[in-house]
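Morning run. Coffee first, then this:
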Amino acid sequence: MALALALGAGGCAHQAAAPVETGLACPVGHEAMRTAQLFFGRNVTGGADVDAAAFSRFVDDELTPRFPDGLTVIDGGGQWRSPSDVLVREASKVVFLVLPQKPDILERLDAVRAAYKARFSQDSVLLVTQPACVSF
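And here it is:
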């Protein structure tokens, strides 16, 4: 995962901003920031699954404009229990981001999640954020 974050952030420009309150004591040369992981399921009920080309268009249309400094996309696979108590397994795409220090970051993440749910008839998009020590 550290490699994926490093690859995704490799193209990010360093931006001067107020320090993020993470509670981390970062080593010299590292900056306290936040990272995010978005988990996009690729099963579509009653339709064709989200293929690589459709997901690539989604990245171009929705993710890149909101996070132009860089991101990493990897293939994944997961499982979850449906409300009817059925174990569902599905392919997924996982997007790793080093979050820019901007006040509208949660709105950007929520907009991406809403766009995916609407475009591909999904119930949810998992979002995980965490503090991190980052060095470019």
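The chain has one domain: 2-7+32-134. Good start to the day.
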